[in-house]
Design brief:
By secondary structure, this protein is mainly alpha-helical. It is built from nine helices and no strands.
Amino acid sequence: MFRTEHASFPKRFGVTLLAGTPGILALSGYIYLTTPASAVPAGLSLPLLAVSAGVNSLLLLTVACLVGTYTAPRVDLSSYLVGWAGTGDDIWRRLRPDVLLAVSLGVIGGLLILLLDVALAPFIAQDLPQSAIGATDATVVNVLVYAPVRFLYGGITEELLLRYGLMSALAFIGWVLTGRQSGGPGSGVMWVAIIISAVLFGIGHLPALAQSVDLTQALVARTILLNAIAGVLFGWLYWQRSLEAAMIAHAAFHIPLVVLSLIQVAIL
C-alpha cells in the first residue's frame, strides 16, 4: 500500500480531481464543436449545453474522487499519483514497469472487442445497421476531434469514476461485510467489485447509444457485454498493478478503434 498518511485528504482528493478535469474539458469541447443546432434541446444554447454536460460530469467526478480517496488506500488499491501527493515519489519510476503490460493488454483488448463486435453483428444488424464500436465518423476531422475524448475522458476520467470511485467503494463495502480481514479484501471480494463495476461501466454506455437508435434487448446485451469485458480488464490492472496502469490500458484500448475509424473514412 502507498504511504498516503503523509498527504492530507484534500491534497489526495485534489490531485485525482485535477487529473480527471482535462477529460471533462475534452468532452465539453467535443459537444460544442460537433453538436448540430437542431440537436440542442429547447431552452438551451449550444454553449450552455456544453457547459452543463461538463458541470454534470465534474459533479460525478468529484463524488468519485471523494469516495476513492477515502476507500482505495483502505483496501490496498494503489495510485502512483496519490502516492506522489503523499511522499513525492517519482511517478514515472514506479509506473515504468507497468507501461508495456498496460499498453499491450489495452491494444489486445481493443482488437478483441472489435472481433467480438463483428461476431455479434448478425444478431443486431436490423437494430444497428453499423456497429457503434466500429462506426465511421463523417470526416477525418471528426475522428481526430473525438480522439481527445477517447484518450482523456475514456482513459483517465472514466477510470477515476468507475475504478477509483466505484470499484474502490465496492471493494471497501465487501471488505467491511466480510469482517475487515487483515491484509485487505480477499480475491473473491475483489472479483465481485471488478465485475460489478465492469457491468455498470457497460450500462453507462447505454444512454449515449439510446440517443442515436432505439434500444432493443439484443443491443443492450451486446453493449453491456463488450464494455464489461473491457471493464474487467481495467479493473484487474487496477487491482494487480495501479490505477495508472488501468488508465494507460484504457487509453491504449482506443488506439485500434481510432485507427479503424481513420481507415474506414479513407476507404469510404
